[in-house]
Amino acid sequence: MIQVKVKVFRFNPENGEKKPRFDEFTVEADPKEKVLDLLHRIKWEQDGTLAFRRSCAHGICGSCAMKINGANMLACEANLANFRDPTRITVEPLQSLPILKDLVVDLRDFFKKYEIVKPYLINRTQPPSQERLQSPEDRALIDEATWCILCAACTTSCPSNWKNPQFLGPAALLKSYRYCFDTRDEGISERIHVLDNNDGVWRCHTIFNCVEACPKEINITWHISQLKKKLVSREH
Amino acid sequence: MIVKHDVVIVGAGLAGLRAALEASHKYDVAVISKLFPTRSHSGAAQGGIAASLGNVEEDHIDWHFFDTVKGSDYLGDQNAIELLVNDAHPAIYELEHMGCPFSRTLEGKINQRKFGGHTKNYGEGPVLRACFAADRTGHMILHTLYDQCVKNNVRFYSEFYMTDLLVKDNVIRGAIAYDMTNGQYVTFHAKVVMFGTGGYGRAFRITSNAHANTGDGLGVVLRAGLALEDMEFVQFHPTGVYKYGILVSEGARGEGAYLLNNAGERFMEKYAPKLMELAPRDLASRSIQTEINEGRGINGEGYVHLDLRHLGEAKINERLPEIRSFCRKIIGIDPVKEPIPIQPTAHYSMGGIPVTVDGEVLGDGKTQKVEGFYAAGECSCVSVHGANRLGTNSLLEAVVYGRRAGKAIVQFLTKNGIDKADLPEEMLKNLIARVERFKQKTGNEKVGKIRLELQETMMSKVGVFREEKSLQEALDKVHELEKRAENIQIDDKGMKFNTDLTEAMELDNLLHFAELIVKGALNRQESRGAQYRRDFPKRDDANWLKHTIAVKKDGKIEFDYKPVVITKFQPKERKY
Fold first, then answer.
1. pLDDT of the residue at A233
2. Between β-strands B353-354 and B380-381, what pairing exists: parallel, antiparallel or unpaired?
């Protein structure tokens, strides 16, 4: 067992607090535990007022994305063994979104941008009585893009998004790719006006922060580049 | 604050979203969820969704029908199972039409894999029946349905915690929730309420379930004086990651993974010579636990190995990528190079809110419908799984019965109009006062500690193997914890994102129905499906071929029973 000093970002505007602060907790931990385990121990044993989101605890629900020692990741996957100094952990909320309380950010804007790209299959052709056929090669075109768990780690790590909050951001663009490149979709003309402008794909300056932040290891920048190519080629 | 909708659905997993989608074509539908919809635990389902499409090899609806009946240890209601296996085809084709990215065969059809207890020709050997999207099937369906709901303008109330149901004179009036972001109470006034609130794996120490899976809907239903069915039947999934409980899909064994004991033997040969690793879950879990209990766990410890290595890196990457990813990240093991340590993990609740095949809730568990109240998915008991669910039948149930409930809701509203019954003001006040009393609690007990003691008790005494003595001890412990829970302390007195309060409310729900699970198991003096009694190791059709019904009146549980619906397959001995 090791002693971990956990610095946790605290802010509760409800209490009239003007500025955030860091609280430091000391937690006993197995060196293979995750940062989420530490946060639970703090909440359950030391300070019940600490607020954070979590649910599945194995990287599929996307609830517990936060900034840990400076990088966006899922707390449930943040293995202490992977930190240079596992005895010192700093936990902050995702950057650039309004903070509701402690580690909980307001995701309304994130989901609004998601809805803007029409994140659903648009197809006007009457489907057959069984499944539509799609070759494994065509299915592979969208595979990586379907791994997204909407944790917001990418969009909140994107400097273009920090500078220009109107930017749709990597998560929404990735979703747009997922449907635009689905061979069953016929909706690119309905999405083009939000993609082909300054707050759409062209605001992506290939900084690759999103790729680094993505817990599902999706090459988001590559997908955005494919959208750019498609728009330039006018193949749509 | 009061908001009005024609239909209010609680829970945004597969059942809730599928029903929402169906009803939203005609009516104003709201979905309440304590998470963002895509965080729902349906998204963690990995291996597949069953349908006898026959895309890869010969299969028949009747084979699926038989397997599900046999898998249920003959406790499943055969009218409901027949609908399940028939509706499977249109329900899955519709998901594909909505854009669900299933894995494909070379001809471009939905691909299918093997799964436990699904067989060809009434038990001859495993059949390729589970439609899949790598090992992310639940995730893909959940996101597809959410996206479709966005398209259909379903109104989402994300991060709203439902505390109680508003039901009076056997008529639904709505539900109460608080907005977790600001603590405000919101009364949902509705003509129809549907529950798709999921299961309660978090009543157990080792579970594949999310922290959110605390069976809130079941607690709420009991408090409203309504019945629950077959609560003693809790499925333990054979392959949870040792100590963590995280699910390693049966799809791994469907692709050919072995179960090995400390001598490196494929021990399933002893327990299910025909199906081996693809035996149904109750049998596979008992086999693993027996190996462990008899000292044949790895290094004599509480786990055996799930070995994927012979499948090769390419197949693992293609078919089981998510499992490889979380094994590497969370336990530091690469299944391409090392076997995965596994143990049985609390996974699924076969019991729940009794409903008709159209999702209408039966308040007395038998015949009396509660007007305007529906339920589907894991929180409900229709009962297609009986005493033991087959893998991939849960996603199927959620989609098929969510769809059926959605259609039934549309019919109900078309026939009866959308005028809502009055809100019961007095009841509303009392129910809000109950939550307020929670906030004021300043005792000396911690929610986390009581929950942990409950989870440890349920795991060790109400687990894979049960017997009278340990069940009685568990019952005493649950009673003790109920008392102690009156004395909890809530640190957080604020309104904003008060998860301290939410966790206390969740614990209250867990404690509310835990007693039903234990007492139901104690009463049922037989072994059937997931309920295995060491002191009654045989199935007893003469006395126990019946569903348990339980209600809580003035804090006391009253038990009743109802017959199983048997149409085509007469009960016989269950061998694999």
1. 86
2. parallel
> What's the one-letter identity of residue A69?
N
Half-sphere exposure of B454 (CA within 13 A, CB side): 31
Query: CB–CB of A173/A204 below 8 Å?
Result: yes
- Using alpha carbons, select from B82, B206, B42 the residue that is nearest to residue B568: B82
Q: Which 55-74 residues of chain A touch chain B by CB within 8 A?
A: 55-63
Cα distance from B163 to chain A (closest Cα, Å)? Answer: 19
Predicted pLDDT at A109: 95
Residue B327's nearest CA partner among B439, B391, B242 is B242
ipTM: 0.97
B46 confidence band (pLDDT: 50, 70, 90) = very high
- Single out the residue of B151, B21, B36 nearest to residue A191, CA to CA: B151
Closest Cβ opposite residue A119 in set B93, B150, B211: B150
DSSP state of B339: P
Residue B181 phi/psi, 5-degree rounding, is -75, -25
The three-state (H, E, C) secondary structure of B61-94, written as one string? HHHHHHHHHHHCCCCCCHHHHHHHHHHHHHHHHH
Residue B110 Cα distances to A41, B126, B298, B379, angstroms: 44, 18, 38, 28
pLDDT per position as a tens digit, B124-178: 999 999 999 999 999 999 999 999 999 999 999 999 999 999 999 999 999 999 9
Minimal-distance CA residue of chain B relative to A130? B93
Instruction: Tell me the pLDDT tens digit for each residue of A86-137.
Output: 999 999 999 999 999 999 999 999 999 999 999 999 999 999 999 999 999 9
Q: Is the CB of A94 inside 8 Å of chain B's CB atoms?
A: no
